[in-house]
Amino acid sequence: MKNSSGDEAVGGAVTLGLLAAWALHDLEELATVPGWWRRNLPALRERYPGMPEAVWRRAGSVNGREFAVAVGAMAAVVASASVAGRLTGGRSATYQTALHAFGLHGLVHLAQAGLVRGYTPGVATSPLIVVPFTLWARHRLRRAGVLRATRPRDLAVGLGFAGAATVGAHAVARRLTKA
Q1: What is the pLDDT of residues 94-106, one digit of tens each?
Q2: Would residue 158 count as lying in a domain?
């Protein structure tokens, strides 16, 4: 199916699929993050003594309720980006940035597992869902002629987007769960 500009149309599987893939991935994180931190924080502190104490305190203070609220806040970000992608046939810069962020997020999970030399929350679904979905969606966007050229700067923006959204989601969660 072609759109009005003659490009192949990008459907909901590509755009709204970002939200679905993200939800599947975050189900793993919801199920594992709080318990994983409780079990692994002492060993991580010992293995990485140069890490600032504030990082360890913050990591150890996130409870399951706060993490679930942060995931909900992130859901709003990903849903908004996915809808923007759907409404623009995949052309939305916000959608494409979120897609890059999602794929890079999966690679970060793989790197974390390598540093820890074992399981970390999110690493099981990263090679099964996150990275393959991102590559497939990018392929579909490219084939439809709507994928923006991806430069190193775009990847940095994607990582920045993911980082800012994560910090924002956790700030919202902290505020809501302390009220």
Answers
A1: 999 999 999 999 9
A2: yes
Is the model's pTM score more than 0.85? Answer: yes
Tokens of 132: 């393959």
Report the SS3 class of residue 2.
strand
User: Amino acid identity, residue 3?
Assistant: N
Give the Cα separation of 49 and 124 in Å (integer). Answer: 27
For the stretch 139-168, pLDDT in tens is 999 999 999 877 888 888 888 888 899 899
CA distance 120 to 114: 9
Q: Are 21 and 132 in contact (CB under 8 A)?
A: no
Would residue 30 count as lying in a domain? yes
1's tokens: 């199916």
**In 3D, which of 162, 16, 164, 161 has the Cα closest to residue 88?**
16
What is the number of structural domains in the chain? 1
pLDDT at residue 3 tops 60 = no
Residue 3 lies in a domain: no
Residue 120 CA to residue 116 CA, distance in Å, equals 8
